[in-house]
Every structure is written in structure tokens, then in C-alpha cells.
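From the shared-data thread, chain only:
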Amino acid sequence: MPLLVRTGFTGSKAMAIISFECPYCNRTGSVTSGIFMNPCPVCGGVVNIEVDVPEGSILVDCRYCHGSGRVLAGFFTNPCPTCKGYGKNQVDVPSNSNLVNCKYCNGSGSVLSGIFSEPCSVCHGTGFSTPKRLSLTKDSKAPIQPSRKTNSCFICYGEPDKAFADKLRIALNNKEIPTWMYSMDYTPGRRTWKEIIDNRRASHKVLVICSTASLSRDGILKEIEQQIDENPDKIIPVSIDLGWTESTFIIKRGATDLKPFLLERNYADFATESFNEALDRLAKAIK
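Structure, as C-alpha cells:
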């Protein structure tokens, strides 16, 4: 795809004016909608696109859509949510800094949410990240790095609730709350239960995803039982349905009745509150 670069100014700020052909319509200016042909929604049928790129920024191929400008949504093709169909993203490169691949998504620009992929919440789908700068007060000598033990959380879930657990993990990470979730953070070669126990003990809070589907599985019941034996005050129940609170629903492992330890605590109510409202309340409890 040819790129034409010119220079210019916006006020007193230098910029590059970059022109390229629209990737969404494959440089034809039109797209098919059923049996009809319509003007491309990205370039408006003009084919050529011009982008003003200010000094200190560069234009890179979008890694979320691999520069195609489009993504599949079921049987349909839509403009990429990251680059809006242009196939390219503007990335700021601060002075004296190098452009590096995003560590969170390994430079792919995408992460899995359940069985679907979505733009990476750290690099916003570009695949690149720049250093995060911390401001220091005049009395500070160095940035204070939060330790994992003081504000992190361990996500305890059953396989039926894996998609919700991953959505919650991403949302908490966006609020700068570290998490440990087995399916995302396990270390190949380590003994499974030892790694789970070590990370559960190191975390400040243990979030138990509560649902009728999960609370009948031995794996999550084992983690709850162990945490109750060690320190039940670290537990925060996260409710995604109310069936588990019914008197007829039994939560036991062997002879141990675990239900009273969950019900005696206020739970984060994702079943009746909106996701964002329940998330804000949960984040305050963790911090």
C-alpha cells in the first residue's frame, strides 16, 4: 500500500501529512451490502485517505486487524474498532523513548475474552506501548511501587464462569488492580496446586465468583475451604446469580458447610447491579 508523506504545520507545531489508499474497501471505494454495492463507509468512496500525524508520533499498521481495516462480527465484516477501518494507528513516541511491543498482549493488539478476542486494554489495539511516567512530589525520592500483597487479588472461579472471570480480570487491571487468575497466569512446569496456593496466599483479597454452576465443583470448593481455614477475612464473594443464595442450594465439601462463610459477608452484586456499578464498589473494597 503506497504512502505519500508531506510536511506541514498546525499553528506552530510541525506535522506530517500522510496519504494512503483505503484498506477497508481494498482500494475500490465501494463495499457490498447483501446484493447491493455502496460507497465505502471509511473513505466515502474517495479511496485516498489523508492523516495529519503531529511531531512525536508515527503511523503504524494496526495490529488488531493486521492492517486490513476490517474485522469479522459473526457472518459480517465491520470496520476495525481500533483503527476505525483505516488499517493504521497513530502512536505517540515520547522523546528519548523507544517504541516497544505491548507486554500485556505480546504485541498482538488483542486479548481473549472468553472465546472472543477484543482490543488489548493496555495498548488499545495498537500492539505498542510507551513508558508510563510517574510524577513525584517534591518530598519524594522515588516512585512507590505497590507490592502484589498489599492491593492485588486472586480470582477464584469455576470453569462455567471463566468468561465472566476474565472480563472481571480485565476490568480490574484497567483500574490498576493486579490480579492472579489461573487460566491466564499459570507457569508451565510448576506444580498446579502449589502455584495456586502460593498466589492465593500472596494476594490481598480472594474474589470468589459465586454462581450455582460453579459452586457445585470441587476445584473452587477446595480453594474456598482452604482460604476459610487460613484466613476467611480475605474472601470477597462476587455474585453473578442469586440461585446460590437460596436456602435449598447446598455448598459443601465433604462434611464442611461452606455456605455460611460466604453468606455472612456482603457480596459484590453483579447479578442485580450494572457491571460498572458493581465493579466500582468492588474496586473500593480491594484498594
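The two ends are 48 Å apart (CA to CA).
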